[in-house]
Amino acid sequence: MKLRALLIVISCLLLLLAAVLAGPRLNDAQGQFIIWQLRVPRVLVGMLVGATLALVGAVFQALFQNPLATSDTVGTTAGATAGALFALALDSSRTIQGLPLVTVCAFAGALTGSLLVASFASSRAAHSSDVLLAGIAVTLATSALASGIQYVSDSRALFAATQWSLGQLPQVGYRGVLLLAPLCALSCTLLLLLTRPLQTFALGEDLAHSQGVNVPRLRLFALGLGSLGVATCVAWCGPIAFVGLIVPHLVRRMLGSSYRVLLPMSLCVGAALLVTCDAFARLIVPGRELPVGIVTAALGAPTLVFLVARGRR
Amino acid sequence: MTELEFVDLSVKLGERTLLDRVSLRVAPGDFVALIGPNGAGKTTLLKTALGLRAPSSGSVRLAGSAIAEFDAKSRAALIAWLPQHIRAEEPVSGLESVAAARYRFRESHAQARRAAERALCRVGANAYANRRVTELSGGERQRVAFACLIAQEAEILLFDEPANHLDPAQQLGIYRLLGELWREGRSILCINHDVNLLHQVGDAARVRVVGLRAGRFLFDAPFDAAMLPAQLGDLFGVEMDALRGSEQRFIVPRSRSTP
Q1: Which pLDDT score is estimated for A67?
Q2: Which of A211, A259, A260 sits opposite B104 (nearest CB)?
Q3: CB atoms near residue B106 (< 10 Å)
Q4: Rounded mean pLDDT, B193-208
Q5: What structural domains and CATH numbers belong to chain A?
Q6: A205 to chain B: closest CA residue
Q7: pLDDT tens digits along B37-69
Q8: CB-CB neighbors (< 8 A) of B77 in chain A
Q9: What letter would DSSP give residue B13?
Q10: In chain A, positions 1-60, which contact chain B (CB-CB < 8 Å)?
Q11: Are B97 and A196 inside 8 Å of each other by CB?
């Protein structure tokens, strides 16, 4: 098991390296610029986003004891989308403190959506399934809001909204990395500290409660921290589908479900997977970039079906 | 040592009354068998003792304080629970599940695993240590959960039909284990459907049988009381016979003679 985990970590590192180097042959001066100023920061953003989405997915699946739970299910992504559409309908070129208005509004929308669900989750009487339902309700409500905004937007805003909702790693340079890193690192580090109480959830949350876990508090922490990380990612990249759902299942297949392994390895595999998908998106159509969200969705959907089919056997 | 006491406890769910002014005291070292028809409120009683359900009126007191006043870890040090149904969605190993049950202890993961191995051994479930709980049968999973309860090392143990899902040999084994835990000084409150299994705990004369029906307290009798067969018959609405074994009395429902 340890050997297998080590092999996976090494493969992840190799994939990350390959993603930096993959691409058309470059001459010296221009090549240096492209690699160091464009590709490396983009790979770093991809690592941060992939790692955060995958870890949060794993934590939410544990928390809700539901293999389909992700940040999409608890209102975070839908809130971000509504926020982003609102900003695009106003004016996509405006900035606040040097940050794009879209990013700021998406972040605010994501936090609002998740806080609504989290406030419900902290109630003592609420069961995990109730919280999940609240998440779905918030998602539906914010989607309705987003549709309303789209209805009154002009065609330019609509095109920008479609682009945004596909999800892509932005070319934001090292400044973007510096803005993403602290919030993602904070969210991931604190989530990893919840490994032990989350493990008690494996046999049901009532049993976890009887074993000394403060269930409402744990739920509030995990939801709050997870939403913070995901809100940061979605604000910059738009909703990137399937990473949070697929990666934990992949890791589970390979290494089992002990959260001491599952959580850190999801972090690792998530980073490598998103960066690899992004390299694909960059290279698959020569001279043109696809949004990475399309690639993750195209790979993710069949992978999910495959994993489910394998799991049934 | 800690006393668990239900004082005039009522629990309502909407219009329905699940428990109606039930008072019951589980003193240190007591073995109380809780018995009653389905829907009598037995499981609800255990859940209020764990703080999983709030009383509508009355209270559950642990060492003299209301259960809601305890923080989660100090409550877990006093009271542990074996639920009737064990959920298993996540394919973790048996050993990891039992190690996780040591949450209340400040210790390294290695220490938790060693304690988990001992607990699994004690319930005869070492074979499940490296198997995934999702792949275990109901009875096997029950044993892993039993090991969780032992690993938690609490003073008061609550059991919800621990012999559920088990074959007869395993049922006897589980009740013998209950007896061992009892003799080690723990208090036990156990929902039970077959009083005859109580012979297995040893010193059965000290076991109390408490009858509960439709949320109401009916009786609290020693296991060897002469009245018990009649009380059980009344509780379930059937006639009960007491049969004499070589040393033990067995209480069985009288089969209706066909005309």
Answers
A1: 82
A2: A211
A3: 7
A4: 91
A5: 2-312 (1.10.3470.10)
A6: B87
A7: 998 999 999 999 999 999 999 999 999 999 999
A8: 212
A9: E
A10: none
A11: no
Mutate to test the interface with A, among B46, B48, B78, B90 (most CBs of A within 10 A): B90
- The A residues from 62 to 81 touching B (CB cutoff 8 Å) are 62, 65-67
Range of the domain at B203: 4-253
Q: Is the ipTM of this complex over 0.85?
A: yes
pTM to 2 decimal places: 0.91
Query: What's the half-sphere exposure (Cβ side, CA atoms, 13 Å) at A273?
Result: 31
Check: CB of residue A82 under 8 Å from CB of residue A268. no
A193 close contact with B: CB closer than 8 A: no
- Residues of chain B with Cβ-Cβ distance to A214 below 8 Å are 71-72
Q: Given CB atoms, is A213 within the 8 Å cutoff of chain B?
A: yes
Mapped onto helix, strand or coil, the DSSP state of residue B5 is: strand
Q: What string of pLDDT tens digits covers the 313 residues of chain A?
A: 788 999 999 999 999 989 888 877 777 788 888 888 888 999 999 999 999 999 999 999 998 888 888 888 888 888 988 998 888 888 767 777 777 888 889 889 988 888 888 887 777 677 778 888 888 899 999 989 989 998 888 888 888 888 888 888 887 889 889 989 999 999 999 999 999 999 999 888 899 999 999 998 998 899 889 988 998 898 888 888 889 999 999 998 888 889 999 999 999 999 999 999 999 998 888 878 888 988 998 888 888 888 778 765 5
Where residue B57 sits, what CATH number does that domain have? 3.40.50.300
Q: How many domains does chain B have?
A: 1
Q: Is A312 on the interface with B (CB under 8 A)?
A: no
Residue B81 bridge partners (DSSP):
B158
Hey, is A243 helix, strand or coil? helix
Within a domain: B225: yes
Give me the residue from A203, A212, A213 closest to B133, CB to CB.
A203
Chain B nearest C-alpha distance from A125 (Å) = 8
Q: How far apart are CA B79 and CA B236, in angstroms?
A: 30
Q: How far apart are CA A102 and CA A91, in angstroms?
A: 9
Interface check for B91 against chain A (CB to CB < 8 A): the answer is yes
B152 touches chain A (CB under 8 A): yes
Reported as a single tens digit per residue, the pLDDT across A112-161 is 888 888 887 777 677 778 888 888 899 999 989 989 998 888 888 888 88
Cβ atoms B34, B192 nearer than 8 A: yes
Q: Is residue B258 part of a domain?
A: no
Phi, then psi, of B197 in degrees rounded to 5: -65, -20
Close Cβ partners of A242 (under 8 Å, ≥ 6 residues apart): A296, A297, A299, A300, A301, A303, A304
Considering CB atoms only, which of B72, B89, B96 is closest to A213?
B72
Q: Are strands B249-253 and B208-213 parallel, antiparallel or unpaired?
A: unpaired
In a domain? residue B259: no
Over residues B135-147, the pLDDT tens digits come to 998 889 989 999 9
In a domain, B233, yes or no: yes
